[in-house]
Write a structure and sequence with these properties.
By secondary structure, this protein is mainly alpha-helical. Helices cover 75% and strands 5% of the residues.
Length: 175
């Protein structure tokens, strides 16, 4: 009887120790591409980029308008049979068309480089990681997984998706 009682007591202590020694792992998921597409348009860096893009487009429109005006003058010179003006206007149209092509090519490449750098901005990624860390630590998550880059995740409960909270924190910190 004493052996049975001792055995049960030891078994209870072992089970109690296992329960207290086990750490429950809580996992959260975040959809980082959704965070980027939601938050980035509201950031100062993206607004500056969009402003520069609009400036480039305005310059292209202005240059196109100038070329169209020259083409209209060219057509009038042809109608008047003024060969000297026709030749001069053709040369100017060709020169401005080449300037437009070069400007468009160079500015498009520059804007594309800036866009890539913006998406990979170290300061933005650091901010996102800091906010993820804050949410995970304050809500007791042991791990946060980017659901968009983990194709093996088949299903997860919306209660562990911290994407909206992350976006809200990023928006609050950018104001």
């Amino acid at each position: 009887m004493l052996r049975k009682l001792l055995f049960v007591l030891v078994l209870q202590l072992i089970c109690a120790g296992l329960v207290f020694s086990q750490h429950i792992t809580r996992i959260a998921v975040v959809d980082l591409p959704r965070v980027y597409t939601t938050f980035l348009p509201q950031s100062n860096a993206v607004r500056d980029f969009n402003r520069r893009s609009q400036d480039v487009q305005n310059n292209i429109n202005r240059m196109n308008t100038q070329i169209q005006t020259l083409r209209a003058s060219h057509a009038e010179a042809i109608a008047r049979d003024n060969q000297r003006d026709v030749a001069r206007l053709e040369a100017e149209i060709n020169q401005r068309t080449e300037q437009l092509r070069t400007y468009h090519q160079n500015e498009t490449a520059r804007l594309e480089r800036e866009r890539r750098e913006l998406a990979q901005s170290n300061s933005f990624l650091t901010q996102v990681n800091n906010e993820i860390r804050f949410i995970a630590e304050s809500e007791g998550y042991s791990m946060v997984i980017d659901v968009a880059n983990t194709p093996s995740i088949i299903w997860f409960s919306p209660s562990v998706d911290i994407t909206d909270r992350l976006i809200q924190r990023l928006q609050a910190s950018s104001r």
